[in-house]
Amino acid sequence: MKNNLFLRLCALGTMLLFFLSGVANAAPLTIQINGTVTEPDGTPLIGCSIIEKGTTNGSLTNASGEYSITVKDENSVLVFNFIGFTSQEVLVGSQTNISVQLEPSASQLDDIVVLAYGTQKKSDLTGAVGTLKSKDFNKGIVVNPGQLLQGKVAGVNVSSVSGEPGASQDVIIRGVGSLRSGTTPLYVIDGFVLDNSSTGVATNPLNFINPQDIESINILKDASAAAIYGARAANGVVVITTKKGKSGKTEMNLSASTAISTLSNKIDVFSADEFKKQVVNAGGNLYNAGGSTDWQDELTRTAQSYTTHLSISGAASEKFSYFASLGLDNQEGILLNSNLKRYSGRLNLNQTGLNGRLNIAYNLTASQTENNRPDGGSMVVNMLQLNPTIPAYTNGSPSLIDDMLNPLTRQEIYKDNAVNNRIIANFSPSLKITDDLTYKLNVGLDRSSTDRIVQMLPYALLEGLDLGSLNSSLVKNDNNLIENTLTYNYQKSSHNLNFLAGHSYQKTFEHLRGFNLTGFASSGIEPIYQDQTSTQEQPTTLNTYAIKNELQSFFGRVNYGFEDKYLFTATMRADGSSKFGENNKYGYFPSFAAGWNISNEDFMTTSVFTNLKLRASWGLTGNQEIPSKITQANYVESKSGNDTYPLNPNANTLDDYPYGTIFTRLANPNIQWEVSRQSNIGIDFGILANKLTGTVDYFNKTSENILLEVVPADPIQPTATYWTNVPDMQIKNSGLELSLDYRSSSQRSFYYGIGGNITLMKNSVENSPYAVLTTGAAQGAGQTGATINGYINGESIGAFYMKEFVGIGDDGLNAYLDKNGDGQVLENDRYVVGTAIPNVLYAFTVNLGYKNFDLGLNFNGVSGNKIFNHTAMSIFNKGSLSSSFNTTAFAVEYPEEAISNSNEVSTRYLENGSYLRMNNATLSYNLSPEKLLSSNWIKGVQFSLTGQNLFVLTDYSGFDPEVNTGSSTGGIQTFGIDRFTYPKARTYMLGLNVSF
């Protein structure tokens, strides 16, 4: 309710800003100027500022680089400004069309990069930072920021857990560095540090952000860039900056799109005719219902999606700027009964005062995200396994199937709906105490609630489903932040010194309350709307938990530059966390970095390099993403005969015993922080007048003090498990990153650009005292708990550990390699047969432009990894086929295989996971203002056609090679296992963007 109210206020505020901007720009002006602003190669400059010199009158270029401005007279001067380019001034005179090309400033190194607690010129960076601006984002249906990044930054692997709308993603920056803490980086939005707490739904925690509100994303990859975030930076830091108002005339932008999505790849299961033959050939019991059904077609659909986004930005005066937006996204999933709908609003304000000494920034976003989720795993099983001779419908209704539920009926009676309401606000006033000293306060809050209802309507025709069920949960998340910083800037002749000192306090709270209830009337009314109370026959199950964490931090940073040639950066952060005991409450995380702008040396004046910089860094980051209060003892009461004894000698049963006390967790105040020790050396370069630019980085990252929940070696230990730091154990990641970009020479009618990046990775687990720490385990009848992959000493992270399948033996059963040669195949014949983590990441882009047409192509891929096809192991076997369940040719690959053969974990189901994907292709046409009938108020129109996931080159036999269960085993994240994963879609989208 609060969020809906806020969205209404956002709409009202937007209309008010329209009114104010109209008043502010109502002065009688006499000459209208139109034109375009481009780079030398013809690339449009989007958001370039055009100001009438000496006034606040101005305009911004649209998506086509076009602008329109009305000035006073022929003596007016237009000033063209864009970050990273040299400004130009043009006298209007008798001209009514003024088009300019802005030349890049010195190597475009004056670009401002948003970092931790401030900004820095790109030329002054000493750390490894990947920067992505809005014009470089991936196009198409994009629900969260991770999709914008895929394939764009070297060293960053972004993969979706599934194809479900709003599905969570794995964002891995420079490798997996922790066992229990996952791979999720720290996200910072407009200076506000997010908490990665659970919302109670397995969806992406960043779904609340409208990607169209994002101006830039910076990825802090090495310790020099990230260490100032200390205990939360071991997985890297993603800094997201949203759009702000700019000086000049008010601009309004309306974008809308509509899209259709279909199943991108079908698995080649048997048709009805093939199925009947194969069941008979296998010696099975054929159940022939007389139909011919493609269940993949029946349970998927052509999904329709649409988005609408309205924004307004500008400045009412030199002292006040604003950006406001409203958005609606509605994405249908390709599986029946799945979709995501999001309403979002944003308001960013900036006010200056006291002659420029006071600056107040205010950022507010509100969203409501609705998820309707199918019973995905069950639906995928039915798509692939259900007997194709069973008709999907009989007389227009889903057919009745003996002893099982028609999946078409299931999707009608199964409802899983989650609604997340979220508000994030931060208020950041800063005051220049002196010309060199600035104080800044940053106060922020994040309020989120997720109400999830999962219900099964009673179905009287099938025993076991006639009672129905209702599961309801409410998760509330609070995140409060207050930070104080002092920044001192000193500039004199050749010296440039910046000093930052600060204090931060952050408190998070997560609370879940839920219940489960069964026994509803079969009245056609959903259980949530039925009156129901707990009974002895149908008791209500209650569950609840709460998590509270606090983090207090002191931090500082020094940046020093001499003659714009020699650069030095040092940071220190001390974090005190409530997650750790008194003996190790604080962790300390320093970093050091140096840079040398070689291209600024006198001896480089005749060099082919227009930019050449050498960087080196070293530092420590930490990891505190562990369960709350694990350092404290916990116990429960028990009447077990092992935990208590009768005080009454006449006691005959446990009911006569008193309650005893048992520990579920022992206190351990000595648990220490996980620490990641990182070093980096890199080179930035530009040649051919910066037409060709690139970056090379080598990194080495070692994680130590690994936190793990282990089984005690002492058999009389009073708890089943306990938390500890594993002595000497290390997780190592190292690699080489290369990024290259080339832009063509200056040609007004045609331009082209190509770019790409590649990352070569190596990782290993060292000094582990455990033979195998299982990360992925099999599930299903006769399978549960069998190791698929894990952490193994001396091997890569996510190493697959299993027997090697060598064929079918004379007995018709699986035959495996006798690895140790002892004449028998046992568990000790398992060995490492590959890894789930790719050792090569690569991506490349092609951008072409001809007159008003633009074409962008994006490709990305991985190599060196394997995928365990758990889906095939579970259902694609001869035993299932003989029972009249459908399968693929995989099940009949060996004619001599017995029906009774078991489907054990082995290399039989291990496949090559390498792939090359055409991620998206966008063709756009920009309509010039002068071609519009209403060019005096419409600044530009862009039409676009985008295709997503157009093709994938891979040997993998499943739906898609970019898969993962998104689950964990023993709290350790799982990689590289495909088990009934929601399939990915191929999407075609039409878009319209209008600037006013």
TrEMBL record:
Topology term for the membrane: Multi-pass membrane protein
Signal peptide: 1-26
Alphabetic keyword roster: Cell outer membrane, Membrane, Signal, TonB box, Transmembrane, Transmembrane beta strand, Transport
UniProt domain TonB-dependent receptor-like beta-barrel: residue ranges: 415-950
Primary location: membrane
A GO term from the CC aspect: cell outer membrane
Top-level taxon of the source organism: Bacteria
Record domain TonB-dependent receptor plug: where: 122-237
Localization in the cell: Cell outer membrane
SUPFAM superfamilies cross-referenced by the UniProt entry: Carboxypeptidase regulatory domain-like, Porins
Family: Belongs to the TonB-dependent receptor family.
Protein's name according to its UniProt entry: Carbohydrate-binding protein SusC
Lineage: Bacteria, Pseudomonadati, Bacteroidota, Cytophagia, Cytophagales
